[in-house]
Write a structure and sequence with these properties.
There is one protein chain. This protein is an alpha/beta fold. The protein has one domain: Rossmann fold (3-Layer(aba) Sandwich), CATH 3.40.50.1240. 37% of the residues lie in helices and 20% in strands. It has five helices and six strands; from the N terminus they run E-H-E-H-E-H-E-H-E-E-H. Strands 3-2-4-1-5-6 form a six-stranded mixed beta sheet, with helices on both faces. Helix 3 crosses helix 4. The relative contact order is 0.24.
Length: 163
């Protein structure tokens, strides 16, 4: 199975409604939109898109899905909020794999994504690998027994836009 991890784009500073209401900025939307050219070249079939309930992740998911997964079901989950345990996200990924999924996307935040990537690559959430805003990491998981995999690609928005 292929796992796509995407951090949300550039968001506004703290909103009046709190962190959950922080929206993408015009710059953030523009950079993500330019990155879609590269995403279309590297992203394969996606069976499900998991997304954080926070506004900036929801907006990023719409851009991502419009570009590469227009028919994939989008599932909002609190397992992808910034402070969530990467083990909760890993359980969702493993469940999808056991159901036969070949591709799944997780659109979320730091520090969760860095910890989840470390968990997928090294088997430890303590081996966090930082994500820049709009970064897409692609991990191939070979077995649901170990749930560790290999890094296929890590693309910044700039690199993705240039593909």
């Amino acid at each position: 199975m292929i796992v796509y991890l995407l951090r949300h784009g550039i968001a506004a500073d703290w909103a009046e409604g709190g962190d959950a209401e922080r929206a993408l900025t015009d710059e953030g939307i523009g950079k993500l939109a330019r990155a879609t050219a590269g995403w279309r070249r590297v992203v394969g079939p996606i069976d499900e898109v998991l997304v954080s309930p926070l506004l900036r992740a929801q907006q990023t998911a719409r851009i991502f899905c419009d570009a590469v997964a227009p028919k994939a079901p989008v599932v909002e989950t609190s397992a992808l909020v910034p402070e969530a345990s990467p083990l909760r996200a890993l359980e969702l990924i493993q469940a999808a794999q056991l159901m036969g999924a070949t591709g799944i996307a997780c659109i979320a935040h730091e520090p969760l994504l860095g910890s989840l990537l470390g968990l997928l690559l090294c088997g430890s959430g303590r081996a966090a690998i930082p994500f820049k805003k709009g970064m897409l990491a692609i991990v191939e998981i070979e077995s649901s027994a170990s749930m560790t995999g290999r890094l296929v690609a890590a693309l910044s928005q700039r690199v993705a836009a240039g593909l």
